[in-house]
Design goal:
The complex is a heterodimer of chains A (172) and B (290).
Chain A: H1 5-24, H2 26-30, H3 39-50, H4 53-71, H5 77-93, H6 100-125, H7 132-171
Helix pairs in contact in A: 1-3, 1-4, 3-4, 3-5, 3-6, 3-7, 4-5, 5-6, 6-7
Chain B: H1 7-28, H2 36-107, E1 116-126, E2 134-137, E3 150-153, E4 156-164, E5 169-173, E6 182-187, E7 193-201, E8 206-213, E9 223-226, E10 238-247, E11 253-260, E12 269-275, H3 282-289
Antiparallel strand pairs in B: 1-2, 1-12, 2-5, 3-4, 3-12, 4-5, 6-7, 6-9, 7-8, 8-11, 9-10, 10-11
Classes of the chains: A mainly alpha (172), B alpha+beta (290).
Chain lengths: 172, 290
């Protein structure tokens, strides 16, 4: 895979989050459960796990800033959370062998770290007023299921491409 | 993990937290307009969203149709019953409209506070995290949209335009919990009761209608509309219906819970309203200043 294609792919995932929220999930979100797509974060977590931690950190910073500018009113929340999440996940992945189950587990852990960071910061600023029990049960759980499915869906093609990219990076 | 926090990393972490706080502080003050790079980013993202929006909507529409088919018969029965009511109301409406026009003509009054210009727009995206309740529409500065304009869906008032770039703009829904997202509203009744809409309660899925005088008597099912005070929104836009009332923490005012009349989750086409006449006559203002 060409190096230039990677940010483009993540950008597509990033935009699809917003479209998905608008078109496919309105009924579901009106009810009890909140399914929050974090597809760009999952893809960045894969980079942090399979490529290297610096790449993960840089992509986390970049797409965090983009999320802040485009989808929220306040700059800094996602910038910090996404970069920190990518870094923490890359540290974890050093101690674990990379297969489907471990990757799925780490993606789920990563997405929940991100959710906790964003929830904490937003509560601090006063944007969110959800109680912690509601957050855990009605928001975190469905979100993890949705993003877990996404991680399984992209695992085989995406990891293959990332490994190819890693080889070309080593050669240079 | 002994190497998780070496000295260097600890310093980097501290510095980044300081930067984080500074950035949040900077962006929390309300800005009137966006900077150029922000506008450029929003426009290019808006373009991609427009491409994505069409196929996503087609697929969603298909499933929605399937779900709707089940209820079609029941709905048809109900609508038939409503049709008679409509005919009666229409006759009344025509009569009232005519009287209003003659009265206006007698008064020589052409412009009205309630007049507004309507612009149609399509929703191309939505803020994916549910903390921020923003939607993005495909009309921007080029089409004459300005910040603070009111946005409605066919069912009622949904929010206001917060920032505008050239080809797209951001709409903050009334359910957003931002502390600047407040506006005055009235309970329709024999006497108008004033209050402000301040945020959303996710647990009860209702808007919070606060600062109602403690002696005001409000019944469940009463309609709440925008007041039109404050120079920004046109009056008489339907916001919602009272579902519950309780005294607030201190007991000096009351808080009512409103069920929004518009479905804030299923928005496709919205209308942006521009007030044609400012509430205060500019010439009068100048005279006062002299």
């Amino acid at each position: 895979m060409k190096k230039i294609l990677l940010p483009f792919l993540i950008y597509l995932a990033f935009i699809s989050e917003s479209s998905l929220m608008q078109a496919l999930l309105p009924q579901e979100n009106n009810m009890e459960w909140q399914f929050i797509p974090r597809f760009s974060m999952v893809m960045i977590l894969f980079i942090a796990m399979y490529l290297n931690s610096t790449y993960g950190l840089v992509y986390g910073l970049g797409f965090g800033l983009l999320t802040d500018l485009l989808y929220t009113d306040i700059i800094g929340v996602y910038l910090f959370s996404m970069a920190a999440t990518a870094y923490i996940t890359s540290v974890f992945s050093r101690y674990l062998f990379g297969n489907l189950i471990v990757t799925l587990l780490l993606s789920i852990v990563g997405v929940s770290i991100l959710e906790f960071f964003v929830y904490g910061l937003n509560s601090l600023i006063g944007i969110s007023n959800q109680m912690i029990d509601m957050f855990l049960y009605k928001r975190l759980l469905p979100t993890l299921i949705l993003n877990g499915f996404f991680a399984i869906l992209i695992y085989y093609p995406y990891v293959k491409q990332l490994n190819l990219l890693k080889d070309t990076l080593k050669e240079n | 993990m002994p190497h998780f926090f070496s000295n260097k990393r600890l310093i980097i972490l501290l510095v980044s937290i300081i930067i984080l706080v500074a950035l949040i502080g900077f962006s929390m003050k309300k800005r009137e307009s966006l900077t150029l790079p922000e506008q450029f980013l929003k426009d290019s993202a808006g373009l991609t969203q427009t491409i994505f929006y069409k196929p996503a909507n087609t697929i969603a529409g298909f499933f929605e149709n399937l779900a709707e088919m089940k209820q079609l018969y029941k709905e048809n029965q109900m609508l038939k019953a409503r049709l008679d009511e409509y005919a009666k109301l229409y006759v009344q409406y025509e009569e009232v409209k005519k009287t209003n026009e003659t009265l206006k003509a007698q008064l020589d009054k052409e412009e009205d506070l309630t007049d507004f210009k309507v612009r149609e727009a399509t929703v191309i995206g939505r803020s994916p995290d549910q903390w921020n309740q923003f939607i993005y529409i495909n009309k921007g500065e080029k089409d004459g949209i300005k910040p603070k304009m009111a946005v409605i869906s066919p069912q009622g008032f949904i929010g206001k335009v917060t920032n505008v770039s050239l080809f797209q703009s951001t709409v903050q829904l009334i359910s957003d919990n931002d502390r600047t997202n407040r506006f005055s509203a009235i309970v329709q009744g024999e006497r108008n009761i004033f209050g402000t809409i301040e945020g959303y309660d996710p647990k009860r899925q209702a808007l919070l209608f606060k600062k109602i005088p403690v002696d005001a008597k409000i019944k469940k099912g009463q309609k709440v509309i925008t007041s039109g005070l404050g120079d920004v929104f046109p009056p008489n836009l339907l916001i919602g219906e009272v579902i519950d009332i309780e005294p607030d923490e201190v007991g000096l005012t009351q808080t009512a819970y409103l069920k929004p009349s518009a479905d804030l989750y299923d928005l496709d086409h919205v209308m942006v309203l521009e007030r044609e006449m400012p509430a205060v006559d500019e010439s009068l203002k100048e005279k006062e200043e002299e």
